[in-house]
């Protein structure tokens, strides 16, 4: 690139760059500034109000020795693993079925996607009713003659997180299905024709050819699911309020309770910093795969 062309590159789309300045300043001041402010005060003994009384890593030591936080991390791991696996698998299978150009495709697509239009609060309340043993699934099955049937995950501390997982999958799988369907519709029809001519089974075509070609779609879906996992809060509050006891506690609820109920900002800031770290663990590899790979091959 010549020296004369560099100023031309700088002033290209100048109006668009000027219009983006407020958004950039907002992101820097509010998001970056708020993040640094939170990390800074996580090393203080802040209570109801922030105060500059530094305690080093004491808040983090206390955090990782608190049973409630450890239970929330365990629940997040179970919930996250289930969401990642089942959302991707169910979403891809539904997309593959719809990609067969079945009748009433638009109707089925709307039905599967509709739960995503609901808020997590509404979803939580709906599934709280469905999973209630007094008038939900258990009551219906017993009324059909299976008197010994038991299904009350929201009232069992050992499996309550799976009841929350069911509700989350019901709401979120439709979005993943639409992403996968868009990716499948972008596959060249000649690939399917060639696989049929070569006698390759359909499942093997999906597994060995289609899925590798849809790598960007899977990465995008993975990031969307992962960020939703870390910030899960309202679904838990609506279904169980963290109960029974603290059996369904999650990190986001722990942060909220520490900051607003217990009035312990320092502990809440430390917990939210750990949540930020978990987000970075997801975002940084995604950014490398999405942009670093393109730059390397470009």
TrEMBL record:
PROSITE patterns tied to this protein: ABC_TM1
Alphabetically ordered keywords of this record: Cell membrane, Membrane, Transmembrane, Transmembrane helix, Transport
Domain ABC transmembrane type-1: 73-286
Transmembrane segments: 21-43, 76-98, 110-130, 159-184, 205-230, 268-289
InterPro entries: ABC_transporter_permease, MetI-like, MetI-like_sf
Matches recorded under CDD domains: TM_PBP2 (cd06261)
Keyword Transmembrane helix: yes
Major localization listed first in the record, in broad terms: membrane
Subcellular location field: Cell membrane
Topological category with respect to the lipid bilayer: Multi-pass membrane protein
Alphabetized PANTHER family for the sequence: ABC TRANSPORTER PERMEASE PROTEIN
Name used for this protein in its record: Lactose transport system permease protein LacF
Organism of provenance: Nitratireductor thuwali
Organism classification: Bacteria, Pseudomonadati, Pseudomonadota, Alphaproteobacteria, Hyphomicrobiales
Gene name in the database record: lacF_7
């Amino acid at each position: 690139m010549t020296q004369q062309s560099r100023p031309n590159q700088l002033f290209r789309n100048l109006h668009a760059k000027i219009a983006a300045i407020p958004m950039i300043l907002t992101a820097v001041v509010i998001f970056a500034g708020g993040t640094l402010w939170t990390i800074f005060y996580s090393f203080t003994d802040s209570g109801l109000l922030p105060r500059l009384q530094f305690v080093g890593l004491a808040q983090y030591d206390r955090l990782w020795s608190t049973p409630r936080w450890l239970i929330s991390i365990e629940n997040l791991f179970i919930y996250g693993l289930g969401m990642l696996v089942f959302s991707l698998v169910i979403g891809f299978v539904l997309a593959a079925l719809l990609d067969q150009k079945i009748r009433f495709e638009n109707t089925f697509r709307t039905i599967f996607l509709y739960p995503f239009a609901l808020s997590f609060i509404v979803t939580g309340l709906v599934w709280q009713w469905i999973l209630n043993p007094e008038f939900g699934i258990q009551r219906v099955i017993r009324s059909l003659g299976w008197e010994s049937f038991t299904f009350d995950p929201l009232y069992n501390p050992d499996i309550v997180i799976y009841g929350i997982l069911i509700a989350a999958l019901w709401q979120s799988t439709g979005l993943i299905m639409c992403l996968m369907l868009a990716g499948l519709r972008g596959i060249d029809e000649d690939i399917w024709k060639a696989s049929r001519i070569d006698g390759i089974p359909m499942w093997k075509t999906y597994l060995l050819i289609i899925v590798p070609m849809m790598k960007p779609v899977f990465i995008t879906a993975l990031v969307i699911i992962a960020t939703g996992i870390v910030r899960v809060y309202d679904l838990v509050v609506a279904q169980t309020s963290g109960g029974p006891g603290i059996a369904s506690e999650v990190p986001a609820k722990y942060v909220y309770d520490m900051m607003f109920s217990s009035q312990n900002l320092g502990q809440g800031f430390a917990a939210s910093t750990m949540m930020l770290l978990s987000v970075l663990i997801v975002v940084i590899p995604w950014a490398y795969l999405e942009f670093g790979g393109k730059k390397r091959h470009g």
